[in-house]
């Protein structure tokens, strides 16, 4: 109970509960083994021997014929461990969806018109009282919907520790008393269970094979991502606007160079590491008049950069930023604007480094259930070390052909060190 409240209310997580089909003897065996462990301790390794991994090993005690941990040699993430359990025969009895408090409030707000929404906001911030004539002018059912939304919002802010009104406990009691005086049935919204469960989403690992053209030069590219999800992947089973990628590697082979492009010094018919990114996180949480969440990103790794001597060395890159994002009512579009900081380190750069700041804007659009578009613009001004003002305008598109198969088309216009060039590619994505 305490952990569910912590996740749903304080940390604002939707919870998926997988009830296991274990008999009394199997449950007893797990309990006895847990007691047997006593004060035994484990070393914690973030990627492989973590909490998700050890829970799998514990369930193997219930049914010794199971091999739940065998496939997790290099990393174990919660979503994959759940998928492994769900695919076992007669292992899962029932799946229960527990929406977070913020999810419930979002659905309540969808059922309010603009006037009712303002009333709910003003009530929860003590700008008006429950005796306000505007609230009294509503029907009992509509007034109940407003008061219930206000009460939920006050409770949500208390749970996350945001004390922006005097005596929030007294306000919560006042709203509960007002709701009790209304002769109306509960206005709790019907929250639909997402069609795709977490164990039914795309595989968290991905291999991408593609071909393209960069500044009059053809290339073929192979990309491998250990885990987990990016904003262009299908959302089913994942949180929309959340990107977490670990250990992404891109290898690119260039065909013989075209001498007509005087700015391109890429050697003839060469293969190189284009990018290696151990960590890349992006969180786009939409803002509105009730929820003022910050969006942010951080990325660290190595990528190709253009040096003043014309070469493109593999430089260490550290980028991060924060800003805001906004969504339309039916969640088919998501816009964002971020202020970014960036650093590059390599001996071939002027003074060996580049440090700058800039901004990025973009939008995610879903014209159909299988089609996603991402248009973006990124600008940076490197003012220390190697100075430059790079700019990128791009459009990415992904079409899902199945749960674990997709096509992707990327085009971009870039400017680096006063040289402009185009990049385009088409790729096939395999998830596993």
Features:
single chain, 432 residues, alpha+beta, twelve-stranded antiparallel barrel, globular
Describe the protein in words.
It is a single chain. This protein is α+β, with helices and mostly antiparallel strands. It is built from 9 helices and 14 strands. It has helices spanning 2-10, 24-37, 51-62, 78-86, 101-110, 114-124, 133-136, 140-159, 168-180, and strands at residues 15-20, 92-98, 206-214, 217-229, 242-254, 270-283, 295-304, 314-327, 333-345, 353-368, 371-385, 391-402, 405-416, 419-431. Strand 8 and strand 9 form a beta hairpin. It is globular, with a radius of gyration of 26 Å. Mean pLDDT is 92; it is low at 258-263.
Please give the order of strands in the largest beta sheet: 3-4-5-6-7-8-9-10-11-12-13-14
Helical fraction: 10-25%
* End-to-end gap: 34 Å
The value of Rg in angstroms is: 26 Å
For the biggest sheet, the summary is: 12 strands, antiparallel, barrel
Brief characterization of the structure:
It is built from 9 helices and 14 strands. The protein is α+β, with helices and mostly antiparallel strands and 432 residues long.
Architecture blueprint of SSEs:
Blueprint: H1 2-10, E1 15-20, H2 24-37, H3 51-62, H4 78-86, E2 92-98, H5 101-110, H6 114-124, H7 133-136, H8 140-159, H9 168-180, E3 206-214, E4 217-229, E5 242-254, E6 270-283, E7 295-304, E8 314-327, E9 333-345, E10 353-368, E11 371-385, E12 391-402, E13 405-416, E14 419-431
Antiparallel strand pairs: 1-2, 3-4, 3-14, 4-5, 5-6, 6-7, 7-8, 8-9, 9-10, 10-11, 11-12, 12-13, 13-14
Helix pairs in contact: 2-3, 5-8, 6-8, 8-9
């Amino acid at each position: 109970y305490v952990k569910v409240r912590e996740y749903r209310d304080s940390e604002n997580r939707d919870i998926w509960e997988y009830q296991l089909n274990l008999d009394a003897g199997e449950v007893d065996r797990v309990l006895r083994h847990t007691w047997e462990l006593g004060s035994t301790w484990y070393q914690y390794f973030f990627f492989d021997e973590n909490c998700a991994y050890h829970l799998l090993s514990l369930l193997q005690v219930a049914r010794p014929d199971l091999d739940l941990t065998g496939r997790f040699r290099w990393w174990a993430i919660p979503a994959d461990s759940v998928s492994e359990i769900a695919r076992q025969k007669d292992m899962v009895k029932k799946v229960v969806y527990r929406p977070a408090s913020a999810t419930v409030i979002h659905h309540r707000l969808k059922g309010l018109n603009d006037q009712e929404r303002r009333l709910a906001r003003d009530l929860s911030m003590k700008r008006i009282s429950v005796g306000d004539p505007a609230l009294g002018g509503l029907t009992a059912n509509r007034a109940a919907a407003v008061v219930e939304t206000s009460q939920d919002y006050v409770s949500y802010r208390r749970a996350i520790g945001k004390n922006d009104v005097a005596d929030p406990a007294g306000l919560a009691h006042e709203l509960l008393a007002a709701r009790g005086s209304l002769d109306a049935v509960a206005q709790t919204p019907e929250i639909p269970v997402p069609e795709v469960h977490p164990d039914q989403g795309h595989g968290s690992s991905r291999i991408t094979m593609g071909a393209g053209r960069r500044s009059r030069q053809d290339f073929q590219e192979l990309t491998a991502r250990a885990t987990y999800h990016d904003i262009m992947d299908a959302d089913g089973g994942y949180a929309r606007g959340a990107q977490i990628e670990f250990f992404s590697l891109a290898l690119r082979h260039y065909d013989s160079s075209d001498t007509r492009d005087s700015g391109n010094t890429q050697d003839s018919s060469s293969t190189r590491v284009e990018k290696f990114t151990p960590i890349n996180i992006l969180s786009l949480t939409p803002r509105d008049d009730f929820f003022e969440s910050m969006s942010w990103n951080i990325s660290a790794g190595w990528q190709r950069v253009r040096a003043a001597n014309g070469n493109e060395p593999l430089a260490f890159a550290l980028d991060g930023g924060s800003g805001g994002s906004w969504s339309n009512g039916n969640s088919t579009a998501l816009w964002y604007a971020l202020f970014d900081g960036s650093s590059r380190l390599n001996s071939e750069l002027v003074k060996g480094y580049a440090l700058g700041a800039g901004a990025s804007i973009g939008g995610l659009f879903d014209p159909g259930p299988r089609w996603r578009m991402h248009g973006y613009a990124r600008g940076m001004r490197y003012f220390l070390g190697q100075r430059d003002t790079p700019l990128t305008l791009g459009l990415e598109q992904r079409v899902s052909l199945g749960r674990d198969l997709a096509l992707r088309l990327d085009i971009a216009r870039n400017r680096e060190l006063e040289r402009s060039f185009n990049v385009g590619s088409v790729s096939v994505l395999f998830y596993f």
